[in-house]
Amino acid sequence: MKKREKLVKQLAKSGICAICKGTKMLCGKSECPLLVRYYSLLKAKRRVGRRIEGSSPPSVFVGSYSYPKVNVGPLLPPEKGNTEYMDMPEKWLDMHIKDFVDMRTSLVRGIKKVDVSIAKDPDYFIVDLQELSMSETHVDSEAVFEKRPYGRVLGGSEVQPFGPIAPLQRIHHDNVKVNPRIEKIYYDELKAEESILNLYKEGVRVSLIQKAFSMGTMGVDRKIVPTRWSITAVDDTISRHLVNKIKEYSPLDKTLVFKSYKMGNLFVVIFLPRMWSYELVEAWYPGTLWNPYGNRTFMVSSHEYYEGRKEYAEIGGCYYAARLAAAEKLEKMRKQAEVIVLREAQPSYLMPVGVWHVRENVRNALRGKPMQFDNEREAINYALSQFHIPPKYWFEASSLLRRFMHQRRIEDFEIH
After folding, report:
1. Residue-level pLDDT at 90
2. Which of 2, 106, 258, 298 could covalently link to 269 via disulfide, CB atoms 3.0 to 4.6 Å apart?
3. Which residues of the chain are under the pLDDT cut of 70?
């Protein structure tokens, strides 16, 4: 992931955006992502001053820059009412990407620098944010900033849209209604992993667990965790637990192929009737997030065999998000399978929207009715036919597809 981020930054210095000025679409996208961000941010800035009254969804953000001293603070829009959807990824998948950008850019971010270890002995400010992170319903808030919140459009496709930002002078919340299951966990002497799994088993949605975990509300040795890290940590913890359960089940009887297309991304999920293994393969057209100025499709993958993997996935947090969605489906079916998730990011995918997009897209695919096949090769051929990218490139990029082509199993040989 770090290598790709460095590459994108280097390419961004080529000056193509200055030449294009949002008119020639030289990057290959259907719209200029910088202009989409700019106009959205301009609308948000016009609505805010040094003091804001609004309903936080509720939402808290923890940065990662200069860790272990990081910026933390609430996000709130300058409006009151039922704003829960603004920080509930489970509700975002059907949004148009420009509406998504407008929604997220309307959230004003207050910041204060703290050491992550403060969660062990929190002050009033951190306690307030912890309560906010454990709430399921919107929280009426008033924020006063040291100066008027500002925002700027950053070049580079890896930058997610965000609203105006400013150092906090003070923050006040009303009607905070903490989720009782998370509140109980807060006072329990449990390890962080146990806390995460207990909440998941009790039906607390994943995005709420991630938010509360980020603010250091779980575990014995508590620390505040940057938002990006907490999302992946929760996805990884839950999916590893589910995979261990899945391995106790028998394999599927048939090969299944699922599909979802949302926000300029096509996901095809293949369930092969085999023992557990898993892979995520991503393909990025020229003009998309990780391939803004290339002249051919860029492909990357990460995988694990039955034994799992110990190293962090090369593909990043998306790997664990997709694995969680696939493991949830197999656990519900009480079956195990070899899972191959194929993602084609197309030019209409204007900008990054977050790891949530992968988790919810795969979940959406697996909620649909699958195509069923008795023959694995037919299923794979069908799956690859759904993409614009030729099958040979998928085989080159995928370890599990190559294994399928070249490695025969005992059960593949019929006994007459």
Report:
1. 94
2. 258
3. 1-46, 152-161, 285-296, 407-416
What angle, 0 to 180 degrees and rounded to 10, lies between the N-to-C axes of helices 192-201 and 206-214?
Answer: 150
* pLDDT for res 8: 45
Question: Which tokens go with 340?
Answer: 């191959």
Say whether both 74 and 194 belong to one domain: yes
Cα three-residue angle 407-408-409, rounded to 5 degrees = 125
Q: Which two tokens stand for residue 142?
A: 């008033």
Question: How do residues 204-235 score in pLDDT, each as one tens digit?
Answer: 999 999 999 999 999 998 999 999 999 999 99
CA distances from 397 to 261, 282, 299, 305, 381 (A): 21, 9, 6, 16, 16
Provide the angle, in degrees to the nearest 10, between the axes of the packed helices 317-333 and 356-367.
30
Q: Considering its fold, how many domains does the chain have in total?
A: 2
- Dist. CA 63–CA 111, nearest whole Å: 9
Pairing mode, strands 165-173 and 277-284: unpaired
Cβ 40 vs Cβ 101: under 8 Å: yes
Q: Which domain holds residue 192?
A: 30-225
pLDDT at residue 222, as a whole number? 94
- The pLDDT value given to residue 197: 98
- Measuring CA to CA, which residue among 205, 60, 68, 204 is closest to residue 141? 60
Quick check: is 246 in a domain?
Answer: no
DSSP string, 50-68: SEEEEEE-S-EEE--TTTT
